[in-house]
## 1
Amino acid sequence: MLVIKDLHANVNGKEILSGINLTVNPGEIHAIMGPNGSGKSTLSAVLAGNPVFEVTKGEVYFQGKNLLEMAPEDRAREGVFLSFQYPVEIPGVSMVNFMRTAINEHRKYNNLEPISASDFLKLMREKKEIVELDTKLTNRSVNEGFSGGEKKRNEIFQMAMLNPKLSILDETDSGLDIDALRIVANGVNQLKNSDNASIVITHYQRLLEYIVPDFVHILYKGRIVKTAGKELALILEEKGYDWIKQEIEE
Amino acid sequence: MVKQQYITLYQQYAHIIKEKSAPLLNSIRDAAFKRFEELGFPVKRDKDYEYIDIQSSYDHDFGLNLNRVSLDVDPYKVFTCDVPNIQSYLCFIVNDTFYANPEPKISLPKGVIVASLNEICTTHPDLVKPYLFKNMDWDNDSNQAFNATFAQDGLFIYVPKNVVVDVPIQLVNLMHGNDDLLAVNHNLIIVEEGASVKLLVCDHASNEKKYLANRLTEIFVGKNASYEHYKIENTHNQTMNLGTVLVHQDDDSRFLSNTLTLHNGITRNNITVHVDGQNAEAIVGGLAIGDKTQKIDNYVSMNHLKPNSTSLQLFKYILDDQAKGVFTGKIIIKEDAQKIAAYQTCKTICLTNTATINTKPQLEIFADDVKCSHGATVGQLDETALFYLRSRGIPINEAKLLLMYAFVHDVLEHISVDAVKDRIRLLVEKRLRGELSKCNGCVICK
């Protein structure tokens, strides 16, 4: 589904990603862990097409298509979804209008008619339940005045609405209390099936108790330095990152 | 000098102007002319006119209809004005002349008058006299002195005590002619105690001629009365519009104005409010969308003369290409006007490096127990928000549109008539999409 080959990326002239290689197949969940500043969020931003980052080398293929050549909106409509670490507040754009526009743009991309008002409302109702999102929130402006937990739940709600093939969750657990974490993880698990895949970026093992990964990768200095099964997360929890750093430097 | 042209013009034709106007309208004409002769047009060295040159608007050789030659066509038939979905009491000012609606679709409540000011000055001088020119400051304001020198007609609205006019009155200011024209007119609106009325003003130009309009509106909002003023300007880039709105508010009254500039050449809106009563509310909002070389200069002077009132100024600008915006917002609070809450916000998005905005808050507060604030921002579209929308599959142009629309939406929220709000929303959306070229977004002018 996703093939990343030797990906290098800069921000403001400074190299953050220094040769990432990663393959994600349908049905898989990949966790990416790593110390602060290792490039985790950069990787997710580059995959989503954030223009702030400049890809200097390497290739990314998504379902056989060259992802790096696509505009962010096309990546989204091809089925890539990024759950933002810091969801953006957009005063004046209502959640309803935002979601209707997004859904219809996806449909247009696939040569489908715009969604009917009643189907749209039904869809909203259905998906809100997945993340236990308050009805009132959907009548408000995008993320405006949402609490940290509500913002993250709203990300998963959008993911549910858009039904992506590849979802990238960028530190979706940060700033969540244990109940919100459970709700968010629950939502992600409900959306999981054998055709889609997830990349879960996290600092902590905690989230992985709820969203069980098939692979855990450790990102350090812009490279994946270790890949193993879910047990790797437990080792990290116990020992921290120092042993990895030592191993690399030896 | 351009001033001299108009001095000569008046000296030559004053007798005709007077002959064709009601005596009441002539009552200050010579005095106003004398002041204009001394003051001249506003120039850039005047602090209130420093960013956009108004004087040069008059440079061009415009025709004036001093002889009151009436139009050879009936505007109600020729200009099928039917802003969709808006039920309104429609009337026209074509160039500078009021044309009463011969067959209004809506009947007005008893006692309400919508008529030509020139006619009313003759038929009901006692009704007009206590108000006419009373809001003006033509002795100090050259623009007003010019208006009083040349104005011969305009719209007159009278809403008697405790009468509520539900349906908005719609005034279409239409510039139409075979030659380049200057129109000067004077409107007078009297809303008596406990009465309520809404006026929707649409500024249009029917063809590609050069037009200059100097329009002045005096508004008197009585005790516990309410008046709403929506102005939509949708002309073309050969049109210059100098609009003056002078408001006097009594106790417990409410005044709301919303000025939307969608298409124009050069526009100057002067809005002066005298909140001369307690527990009154004044909201002055505006939205300007400019591209190419459009110039939009909004000037607000909010004067609190009595205590316990509130006011808000809220303006938004979206400027593209080389468009130029100016906002001057004055808040003047007199010594005894305690417990005033007066706020002001002006926000601008410049879409290009060549678009410019000058915003100037001027607060003069002589009372010591008031709440006042002012704020101005100038920026571009938020890149992070843009990426967020795109990351959900919304194409860049659509995402920009959503953000621009979101940027202006709070100005539109102040519009109380839903049909007007919907219509304006649609116009704004079309304008932002670039689909609205001069008049044809609206079916008023064919």
## 2
Amino acid sequence: MDFTTLEYYSHFLPITLLAVFLLAYRNKNMQVSLLLLSSYVFFWFASGWHVILLLISTLVDWNVSNKINSTDEISTKKRWLTLSMVINLGLLATFKYLDFIIESLNWATLKIGGSPSIEAMGLILPVGISFYTFQTMSYTIDIYRGKYKPYDNFISFACYAAFFPQLVAGPIVRADHFKEQISKPISLQSNSFRFGITLIVLGLAKKLIIADNVATHVDSIFIEGEHLKNTALIWWGSLAFGIQIYCDFSAYTDIAIGSAALFGIRLPENFDSPYIARSPQDFWRRWHISLSTWLRDYLYIPLGGSRNGTRKMLIALMITMLLGGLWHGASWNFVLWGFLHGLLLIIHKYLSKTKYVEQLFTKLPRVSLFTGWLITQFMIFFTWLVFRVEDLDILIPSMKSFIGIDNYFSPHAGWNLLPQGKYLTSLLVVIFAFGHLLSWKIGKFKHWMARSNPLVWGISMGLAIAGIIFLRPSTTVEFIYFRF
Amino acid sequence: MDWEELEGDLPNFFYSLFIGLIVALFCLSNAGQFIAEDEMLNGTVVPGRFSITYEGYKYISNDDSRTVVGIGSSIMQYAMDGKCMSEQSEVENTKFYNFGMSGGYPYVEMVQIPALIKSEPDVVMIEIGPNSLWGWGSNNYSASDYHKLRFPLSSMQMTHDLTGGWYDLLEQKDKELFLNTSMQRNLQWNDYTRDAIDAKIKNWVYDIAEIENYNSVPKINTKQWDDYLQLPKHLPSKYDAINESQIREELDESMPKKINNGVYNPKSNGTQNHAALEYMISSLNDAGIEVVIVGIPHHPWVREYLEPGQLDGLNETYSNYSSTFNVHQIQMYWETWNSNEFYNRNHLDSDGRERFCQQVTPFIDEVLLGNEPLYVAEIE
């Protein structure tokens, strides 16, 4: 069960809503308990016995944070914090990276003339492990830092760790933010309900109409063949993947935020029109915001941030981005992706301080901003190639073609290779691009829709639901971030 | 944005939910057919002729002329030139319509019989060849991709009065492909809307009214549509483009693989296709429609690859049906036609259609006049 399955809307969500609002009417503790129970049920249907790992992570951080809170000795606090990190990162490393490490060691052994002797374990990646381990770790670290007091009871904390809308693919929520949300009884509010339904419906439309249609183009382009030398096709593939991953991931977030809103719980936004970013730094303020702020608060700043001079700042930045890339998946292409983003951030930091660039922005602000946007987006979409394509036999020719090496440029030949539905998909890409670029001027469409008068809202939601059914492709693509 | 900024109370909220539900239900149950029907019928969304059957029969039912309809597989589709036969016929005001379908066989074609009867043809020609008389075991049966294509299409366009005894002859898994309510039929159109919208955008971009290719079908109720129902589109003859030794080579390569298939091992009775044929013939008989069973020849060299008696099931079927039902028969399968009359090993080309027209039309004329003609095959 996930956000695109009928069971979520026909069974799971209504039953949970009824239970929370009717069975546990105005009883805060019972409501939180029911949310916790339904979250574990949701996780069970998503990942089966891996729910035990969620429980382990929750129990570890609950106990460790209480131990940290109960002592004033720094060294004792540090030991408990270390324990939490070792266990959480150990779980993550084992289930997510162990086979990657084994395969890399075997590859290295082969390269130096040896024979690989370690067999991969074949471990299945538990759904959401990258998200909930980071979330519970952030709680323990915040308690260690004395940012806030621990949760009053285990049920509330466990509910925070497992809250089903954001459990599987974020946004990564800070504990104090969630604690505040469940500090009073949840009651049915028409405005939060309306907001929630708006986000859910528009999220489904983004996922099933745009992301899944565009995915058909992406899948048909990034396969082996001479066509990879066609720069026009590779640019289109990169653009399509950038749109796919944004619409896919932001749709998940919207549905998560919308589902939480039905219960009167606010989750943070995770995206802010990333493709209008005018610099790599701006991009990371707009893309997967909950992860980038987590990395900033729990990795970059502890590594020194910008406090210890430029050289150390750049090292901290690169380490953060490398690990951020690796967080996405156990594959070298994600490490490369993180490296490229680290490089872009470093280059941007360096260039933005040069006199030449400062003068350019003073004398020609609009041209400079536009140029900055163009270059930033060109590089961002180049990095999406690295993110999408794991096979080097496909990645290397694609990268070369993208930047104009060993290539040809034929939009017509590229167009003929695209699969059925290309006219509709291309129109969707144009509509998306238009809407996204305008968002800086007119604000988010989903908020405008939520604010519209009841008749307009009702008709729009009805048309959106019909549009989803009419325009979705025959096969639904799994949410991309489920793989992480 | 904080939802606290949103105005509204519960009654307004439920009102807007209700509106949304009504709009969604209305669109989903009606708009799908409106969006997809044109592209369905013109061969864009579903390539070829598969969607034309019910509209075609509706069209024929409004035709004042006497009508002769040919049904069967692509063999009938390639053999019958309805325009030639309409011109050749000496019975006034008679038109010949070709509803042969690529890949068709009696088990699949039987579902159209109620609609065919409703269109009130005077004569129905049913192609029965070796490819019509095979069957399958019912244990572990699974619906083929062809059934998954044809049956839902038929079901979508079928109204309640067009169901019939054929339903009981279906395997359980094929029954599941049929939609039982008009709501389900309406919703089924939604599976084709995406491709239909894509085709509409393409037409708008290129400013073309119709996509002209082998799979395209003319707009319904036009002159071109009327012509198309009589004479479908055909590909250029493959055998005309190669010489005799190349034909021989092609048959040497393909026939050994095919001779053990069901299409070259017809049974004499008891198969699912036999049951379908018996339903078709008896239903047409009961409706007072003349039935002609037609055997269409294969390339003259095909029989060299078969064992003696391998096609006895075909002869026995013809013999059984002639004595059991009220049918006329034109058995041309055993005639030896010329190599240059064939598109490939089992389909006729334009020369073959011309010969078919010349040989079959006089026989049909006799049937139309109420006579009991006897077809004498030209066996060498």
